[in-house]
C-alpha cells in the first residue's frame, strides 16, 4: 500500500533539480494528456531523474528506467513528485535485475 504525502510536501516536476532521484506521487493532468503520460510510463510510484532543461527551461528531459523523455514545462507542472533518496523498496544498485539506473 502506497501512502501519499500531503500536497504541501510534494513538488512539481517542473520545479525539480537536475540529477536528484524522485518518485512520482500523482498526476493531476486530465484527458488525453494524462493518458499519454500514463502510456509512456509516468505512473504513481515510478522513479525518475531530471537530466536537463532546455536553455529557456522548456522542454525538460527526464530519465525513467532506461529511456529518456522530453516534456513541456506545462505538462511537467501536472506531475507531483517527492525525493526518492531513501526509498525502502529500492536501494542504489539493487533494483530489478540487480541494477538500478541512478548513479550508473
Task: Provide the CATH topology.
Answer: SH3 type barrels
In order across it, which strands form the biggest sheet? 1-6-2-3-4-5
Helix fraction, binned, reads 10-25%
Averaged pLDDT, please? 78
Oligomer: single chain
CATH first level: which class?
Mainly Beta
Rg on CA atoms, Å = 13 Å
Q: Report low-confidence residues grouped into runs of 5 or more.
A: 87-104
How much strand content do the residues show? 25-35%
Number of domains: 1
Distance between the termini: 29 Å
Can you give a write-up of this model?
It is a single chain. The chain is an alpha+beta fold and 104 residues long. Helices cover 12% and strands 30% of the residues. It has a six-stranded antiparallel β-sheet. A hairpin with a 2-residue loop joins strand 4 (60-64) and strand 5 (67-71). The longest helix is centred in the middle third of the chain and has 9 residues, at 31-39. It starts with 10 loop residues before the first strand and ends in a 21-residue tail after the last strand.
Q: Which keywords apply here?
A:
104 residues, alpha+beta, 2 helices, SH3 type barrels, disordered C terminus
